[in-house]
Amino acid sequence: MMGYLVLGFAFGLLLVSFNYDWYLAPLMSIFIYAGALQFVAINFFNVKAGFVDIAIASLFVNLRQSFYGLSLLKRFRKTGKLKPYLIFGLTDETYALLTTIKDDEQLKKRWYYFFLTALNQIYWFVGATAGAIIGSNIEFNTAGLEFSLTALFVVLCIEQYKNLKNSIPFLVGTVASIFALIFIPSDKMLIVAIFISLLLLFFFRKRLDLND
């Protein structure tokens, strides 16, 4: 809640700072609900990018979720009619919580997954709407606000490290990211870094014991 309210608030402020109507923030938070992509979408609007360009860029930005989404297929297998929403609402932060917090056996898992996902979207929606409304009425200096997304990812990474207690996956991610940053064009850096990380993790799979 604390992360998404603040991050959503930053998105709302940033959106209206470019003279877009405040109601776009809640609409995007309901129908798109992709934190990183929503920040990127603001730049799409500014450069008047075409639908094809937006679709391709969106695919590459969110393609990472298809990789870690595969690890949740077993968990979501018996979620019934809730499954489509769980897939739609899967974000980096929700995934981090699902893989960090141990399931409470006393709870019905499918409803636990649903409410965790739904509450995260509500927090984002409330934060984004509040930020857009307040930003429309009070002038803010929004310089550096986009870094709030990076800051949240850093916190999630730290929590994952504490839970996993294995430094190899983080070293693999660091090496792959540095390689992609130096040798790969910026528009393809993310997907290349993910592929390299996956290859290295599969190579070291026996030593990592990441099957769970």
UniProtKB/TrEMBL annotation:
It comes from the Bacteria. Coiled coil: none annotated. It is found in: Cell membrane. Pfam families: AzlC. InterPro entries: Brnchd-chn_aa_trnsp_permease. The keyword Thylakoid does not apply. The chain crosses the membrane at residues 50-73, 111-134, 140-158, 167-184, 190-208. One of its GO terms (cellular component) is plasma membrane. GO terms for biological process: L-valine transmembrane transport. It is a multi-pass membrane protein. Keywords: Cell membrane, Membrane, Transmembrane, Transmembrane helix, Transport. Belongs to the AzlC family. This is Branched-chain amino acid transporter AzlC.
